[in-house]
Amino acid sequence: MSNDFQIPNFKLDKIDQAIIGLLHENSRLSYTDIGKHVEISRVAVQMRINTLMEQGIIEKFTTVINPTKIGITVSAFFNVDVEPKHLEHVADLLSNETCVTSLYHMTGPSKLHMHGIFKDNQEMEEFLTEKLYPIKGIVSVDSQLLIKRYKSRMGMKL
């Protein structure tokens, strides 16, 4: 796990904010189309996006897949209580699991909050019994199955 937090020194102006907003809604927009929306040239848009990427503000462009459409029907949240001396090791192991979609170090009684997706309940049980429970340092695991998704946001919207 990296400890690369630092106070940001990059200020977003209104054009950068508009570009990020447009990309958040549709990252396939061309530089030309973005330029028309924000009233700057295609080359200026490209330069701004490159700078936003170099600064780490835009981390990556990706495709969002609806898991249920491809047969991944179980979505679960886990609170994983970990002995403090094993926290980084456990987080590293879990972050490399393909079924783990997000993993956070949280305050409160659970040290790690994790979301995972699975083909079915059997696949989730196999993950729990064969991969999660045997990890040294895990004290307890609490899980909750998702019943219905009302809202889900990828990334941050300005």
**Fraction of residues in helices?**
25-40%
Strand order of the largest sheet: 2-3-1-4
Rg:
20 Å
- Helical/strand content category: alpha+beta
How confident is the prediction overall: mean pLDDT?
Answer: 91
List the secondary-structure elements in sequence, H or E.
HHHEHEEHE
How much strand?
A: 15-25%
Q: Note the total helix count.
A: 5
Number of strands: 4
Question: What this model shows, in words?
Answer:
With 158 residues, the protein is of the alpha+beta class. The protein is built from 5 helices and 4 strands; from the N terminus they run H-H-H-E-H-E-E-H-E. A hairpin with a 6-residue loop joins strand 2 (100-105) and strand 3. Helix 2 packs across helix 3 (42-54). The longest helix is centred in the N-terminal third of the chain and has 13 residues, at 42-54. The mean pLDDT is 91.
